[in-house]
Specification:
The structure holds two protein chains of two kinds. By secondary structure, chain A is mostly helical. Chain A has two domains: 65 residues; 33 residues. In chain B, helix 1 packs antiparallel against helix 4 and helix 2 runs antiparallel to helix 3. Chain B is mainly α. In chain B, 75% of the residues lie in helices and 0% in strands. Classes of the chains: A mainly alpha, B mainly alpha. At the A-B interface, helix 1, helix 2, helix 3 and helix 4 of A face helix 1, helix 2 and helix 6 of B.
Chain lengths: 98, 199
């Protein structure tokens, strides 16, 4: 019985997260119509997307209640992800002035 | 002589506290993060290196993309509700929500088809410019992931659901793992939507 109550609680959380994701989607679109300059527009859009992504990962993918091994895998992945994401930009800054 | 059973498909391993299926899908998702990460890096490098970069709305339809975002988010909810229905041993409710998830996948691809054909009618192809090239590459790869997820979900909605009668806990695990992939596909779209359509 208590197990069923727990699942009902989960379902209420899923529906709340669903509502939040919809609201954040329309906020993202709304921000794009403000015609901000590039840097704040990118910063705001990525901030909202990061919140949305975190909601999906934490609640729908149950990352909040996972074991340490999964956190270790994700931590390594995030580190390499940022390396891959930002590493190529070094070529754009041309630090050795070729 | 019976076939050797694959260990730790349901029960957790004593060392990690996780079953092998859960570890396997997270390692696979880690590789997927790197795959899309490389493409996001390519996008950043192309954009930073370009003298001018168009706003996505100049070429793309924001209303269609917003609709697709809502469709994919909704499918993530129905997917997790399908899993919750199994946890409550409500098989008919599971069938309903998993069926809705598969239908939402078709809806997403249908809208993508409308978007792509509209581009082609206007003479916009991957070879037209760098923006459209990276747009078709990233959304095309994402659409392939949607198709892959739909095939798995449709199997667990149809013939694969027979396992519910024989190995219910293993079936719940399978649906959870399929759900993790589906949510990842949703997560990738959450980032593709603003960078390609809105910025």
């Amino acid at each position: 019985m208590s197990h069923e109550i727990d699942i009902d609680k989960h379902v209420r959380t899923y529906l709340f997260v669903f509502g939040s994701l919809l609201a954040l989607t329309f906020i993202t679109v709304g921000i794009s119509y403000l015609h901000l300059s590039v840097v704040p527009a990118i910063g705001l859009a990525l901030a909202v997307a990061t919140v949305k992504g975190s909601l999906v990962a934490c609640y729908f993918m149950h990352l909040l209640s996972e074991r340490k091994l999964i956190y270790a895998v994700m931590l390594l992945t995030v580190l390499f992800f940022f390396f891959v994401l930002l590493g190529p930009l070094v070529t754009e800054t041309n630090p050795i002035e070729l | 002589m019976s076939a050797a059973a694959i260990p730790y498909t349901v029960e957790p391993r004593p060392d990690s506290g996780l079953n092998n299926v859960k570890i396997g899908i997270w390692l696979f998702l880690a590789s997927e993060v790197m795959l899309f990460g490389a493409l996001f890096a390519g996008y950043i490098l192309l954009r930073v290196g370009a003298e001018t970069w168009p706003r996505g709305a100049e070429f793309l339809s924001v209303p269609w993309a917003t609709t697709n975002t809502v469709v994919l988010i909704s499918s993530s909810v129905t997917m997790v509700l399908a899993w919750a229905a199994l946890m409550k041993k409500n098989f008919s409710r599971y069938k309903l929500f998993m069926g809705l998830t598969v239908l939402a996948g078709f809806g997403f691809l249908g809208i993508k088809y409308i978007e792509y054909t509209s581009k082609f009618h206007h003479g916009y192809f991957p070879s037209t410019n760098t923006f459209l090239s990276i747009y078709f590459l990233m959304t095309g790869l994402h659409a392939l992931h949607v198709i892959g997820g739909m095939v798995v979900n449709a199997y667990f909605w149809g013939p694969g659901s027979k396992m519910w009668k024989t190995h219910p806990q293993q079936f719940i695990n399978r649906v959870e793992i399929a759900g993790l992939f589906w949510h990842f596909v949703d997560l990738v779209w959450i980032f593709l939507f603003p960078i390609l359509y809105l910025l």
